[in-house]
Write a structure and sequence with these properties.
Helix content: 40-55%
Number of domains: 3
CATH topology of the largest domain: Rossmann fold
Strand content: 5-15%
Radius of gyration: 19 Å
Structural class: alpha/beta
Order of helices and strands: EHHEEHHHHHEHEHEHEEH
CATH superfamily of the largest domain: Cobalamin-binding domain
CATH class of the largest domain: Alpha Beta
């Protein structure tokens, strides 16, 4: 008879089942990619059911093509796009595909940091994935009345592929999405003040300090409030608490949940 403890795996055991390193499992745990429980002593444990769900969701599944290896072998953008389209059919939504790409990017970055891979190899791989994602997004129709979204990084550590994944989720809902690269908060506020955007998705990495991000939000909110635009805070940066008028959406899952909620008509029949 199995006990409750038997249904919980260590980082090493979960990593073995998913075909990744224990370090990658711990990083996915920190990033919320896979659900973690803690023992009374503070050690990580993973439910077998959660690991099974992750195995179905991630590109690193046994018997399937490993997206990281396809990217690192510098396959064509069209071939990577075909892989993404295949995953869309398997996973059921572009938000799920975006979520599955996150650990792939994380694993490649880790291999670059440890010197297992040349930094330039990981940079090229990210660029190929960014182009493939952008092709998928560009082929989706946009509703004429859909919200117009500016997707901008507020620090240089945010990669273009991170913005592309966010745009993919937005375009999947037929919203207009513009990836703007790295911008200062005043630049974003000026763009919103011109009436050009209904939503701003600001993206930050852990490299930015809380004080810097507090200042960025403080600079964005007045212009957005004045123009009736919403501010969504994405990425792993130390953004202000949920008490802020801005909307937290650190993961693609949270972003998609907000998009789905925003698609519901408000009291006056409009959407953000």
């Amino acid at each position: 008879m199995r006990t409750g403890a038997d249904d919980h795996l260590t980082s090493t055991e979960a990593a073995r089942l998913l075909g990744v390193s224990a370090a990658t499992i711990k990083r996915w745990s920190d990033e919320g990619v896979i659900t973690t429980v803690r023992t009374p002593g503070g050690h990580r444990r993973f439910r077998r059911s959660d690991v099974s769900i992750a195995a179905e969701r991630l590109f690193t599944r046994t018997g399937g093509s490993d997206l990281a290896e396809l990217l690192l072998s510098r396959r064509s953008v069209l071939e990577i796009q075909a892989q993404l389209l295949s995953e869309r059919g398997r996973l059921g939504s572009w938000a799920a595909v975006a979520e599955a790409c996150v650990p792939v990017l994380s694993a490649m970055a880790s291999r670059g940091r440890t010197g297992e891979l040349p930094y330039l190899a990981t940079r090229i791989a990210r660029r190929i994935l960014e182009q493939a994602i952008s092709r998928c997004a560009d082929e989706m129709p946009v509703r004429s009345e859909a919200p117009r979204v500016l997707v901008a990084a507020v620090d240089d550590e945010v990669a273009g592929v991170d913005l592309a994944l966010i745009c993919l989720c937005l375009r999947a809902s037929s919203w207009t999405a513009w990836p703007a690269g790295t911008c200062s908060a005043p630049e974003i506020a000026s763009f919103v003040s011109s009436g050009a955007a209904d939503v701003v998705v600001a993206v930050a990495s852990v490299a930015r300090s809380r004080a810097v991000l507090d200042a960025a939000v403080a600079a964005l909110l007045p212009a957005c409030s004045r123009m009736g635009a919403r501010v969504v805070l994405a990425g792993n940066g130390p953004w202000p608490s949920p008490a802020s008028p801005a909307i937290p959406a650190r993961t693609t899952r949270e972003l998609q949940a907000w998009i789905d909620a925003a698609e519901q008509p408000g009291p006056n029949g409009s959407t953000p």
